[in-house]
UniProtKB/TrEMBL annotation:
SUPFAM superfamilies: ALDH-like
Descriptive protein name: Aldehyde dehydrogenase
PROSITE patterns documented for this protein: ALDEHYDE_DEHYDR_CYS (PS00070), ALDEHYDE_DEHYDR_GLU (PS00687)
Source species, domain of life: Bacteria
Any one cellular-component term (Gene Ontology): cytoplasm
Domain Aldehyde dehydrogenase: from-to ranges: 11-450
InterPro entries (UniProt xref): Ald_DH/histidinol_DH, Ald_DH_C, Ald_DH_CS_CYS, Ald_DH_CS_GLU, Ald_DH_N, Aldehyde_DH_dom, Aldehyde_DH_NAD(P)
Keywords in alphabetical order: NAD, Oxidoreductase
Keyword GTP-binding: no
GO biological process: aldehyde metabolic process
Protein family: Belongs to the aldehyde dehydrogenase family.
Record-level Gene Ontology MF annotations: aldehyde dehydrogenase (NAD+) activity
Length: 483
């Protein structure tokens, strides 16, 4: 069972009859959708784009009402990436949909081979609360581009954005093409009982396992966009000031509630003090030099709900009690769900801050002398969704890539790989299964159908039974010539 959240008691009971009816309507319509042309799919995407642009102010208000996210951050992290995904897909969809010709071996001379991209069918999108617009609409774009019918379920933790999305979907699409159901865990569970052709889930690893288990009952394919502790390595050659500034932005944007946020930093021992001082300077420049200024800053997103606030506060307090030092921050305010942008030094691998993904504005800093120490630590945990390296040494960067794995990686910056629709976005191992964005998203929501067409008499007939005499000798010689 998917567990309920703190807001579940405000959610209506799942209307299982209506969910089933919409699912059946979409399943009946899926062949019509799968036969749509590139022009028809592009027209749908353009309608979606126009509706989003017309309601951008309404979207910003909804997200701010849910967790005080600044309007500029909404534009930069929710709206712009989604519109870029839409525009990129509209530009390239016609070429993506074309069958891809592939080679044919000599033994099969007289035939041709190609790969067709076909819609998977009826798909389910289960999206999270931390980027409630982008992380629902971006995969929706890919699912529509591939010709699927789609049912969406946004998170109940961001009810204002959920209502915005429900109205947006209703106004742009007929229900037998795209539908959205609000609600809590009961709604998600009712949806997961249905035999979808594909399930796309964004959330934490624990719930991802439950989604995969539900999909297995119907042998549905899955894409799991999960999380994990994304490490940062700042080596002795790094530009410390630039590293601190970019990490300060990447860690504290969205209140630290980002699946690819820098979760902790390994800084070379020779650079520790300079790096910590640069982090403090960046926090002062971004959010204010005093606690009063930071708490009054309109640029700091709040924790999404009291449960998240208490979890991060407890993690912070236990880490300090275990010996971590507060370099900056540490203040909290329960009524506003505020936690100050916080940097911890003196952190060890055993610190509570290193137990799991923080998902809040707390940055632990550890030191290292050799990269082997860092490799051992990263390998001991789950495979991260992202890895960030700050270095001016290309050989060191290559060595890091050779000795670690992650869903994605960035050198001398953070988070920005998500903004490139030409790159796949996804995890590996405990941080996810499958990927999307751009062409990769189109392929995720498509079945790659292998097709071979025999136009002439097949040379393979010389290998038909009976396997003896001259036929056997000819077949043996022919196959060896082609090896």
């Amino acid at each position: 069972m998917l567990e309920a959240t703190s807001q579940a008691n405000t959610q209506p009971t799942a209307d299982t009859e209506r969910i089933r009816a919409v699912f059946e309507a979409q399943r009946a319509h899926r062949w019509t959708m799968s036969r749509t042309t590139a022009a028809e799919r592009i027209a749908r995407l353009k309608r979606l784009r126009e509706a989003i642009i017309a309601r951008r102010a309404e979207l910003a208000d909804a997200i701010h009402a849910d967790f005080r996210k600044p309007a500029v951050e909404v534009e930069l992290t929710e709206l712009h990436p989604t519109l870029e995904e839409l525009n990129h897909t509209v530009r390239h969809l016609k070429s993506w949909m074309k069958p891809m010709r592939v080679g044919t071996p000599m033994l099969l001379a007289g035939s041709s081979s190609h790969v067709r991209y076909e819609a998977r069918g009826t798909v389910l999108l289960l999206s999270p609360w931390n980027y409630p617009f982008n992380l629902l609409v971006s995969p929706l774009v890919a699912a529509i581009a591939a010709g699927n019918t789609v049912i969406c379920k946004p998170s109940e933790k961001t009810p204002h954005t959920s209502r915005f999305l429900a109205q947006l979907v209703k106004d742009v699409f007929p229900e037998n093409e795209v539908a959205l159901f609000e609600g809590g865990a009961e709604t998600a569970e009712a949806l997961l009982e249905l035999p979808f052709d594909h399930i796309f889930f964004t959330g934490n690893t624990r719930i991802g396992r439950k989604v995969m288990e539900a999909a297995a009952k119907h042998l549905a394919s899955v894409t799991l966009e999960l999380g994990g502790k994304s490490p940062v390595i700042v080596d002795e050659t790094a530009d410390v000031a630039a590293a601190a500034e970019r990490l300060c932005w990447g860690k504290f944007v969205n209140g630290g509630q980002t699946c690819v946020a820098p979760d902790y930093v390994f800084v070379h021992a020779s650079k520790e003090r300079a790096f910590l001082d640069a982090l403090k300077a960046s926090i002062t420049r971004f959010y204010g030099g005093t606690e009063q200024e930071r708490q009054a800053s309109p640029d700091l997103t709040r924790l999404v709900d009291p449960v998240a606030w208490r979890r991060v506060k407890d993690l912070l307090e236990r880490s300090v009690a275990a010996g971590a030092k507060l370099e900056v921050g540490g203040e909290t305010d329960e009524p506003s769900r505020y936690i100050a942008p916080t940097v911890l030094s003196g952190v060890t691998a055993e610190s509570p801050a290193m137990e799991g993904e923080i998902f809040g504005p707390v940055l632990p800093v550890l030191t290292f002398q050799s990269r082997e120490e860092v490799y051992a630590h990263i390998r001991a945990g789950g495979k991260p969704l992202a890895l960030y390296v700050f270095s001016q040494d290309k050989r060191a960067v290559e060595d890091i890539f050779q000795n670690t794995t992650s869903g994605g990686a960035v050198v001398n910056n953070v988070l920005v790989h998500l903004a490139n629709p030409n790159l796949p976005f996804g995890g590996v191992g405990t941080s996810g299964l499958g990927n999307y964005h751009g062409h990769f998203g189109f392929k995720t929501f498509s079945h790659e159908r292998a097709v071979m067409v025999q136009w002439m008499k097949s040379l393979a007939s010389v290998f038909f039974p009976p396997y003896r005499g001259k036929a056997q000798e000819l077949a043996s010689r022919a196959t060896r010539l082609m090896e």
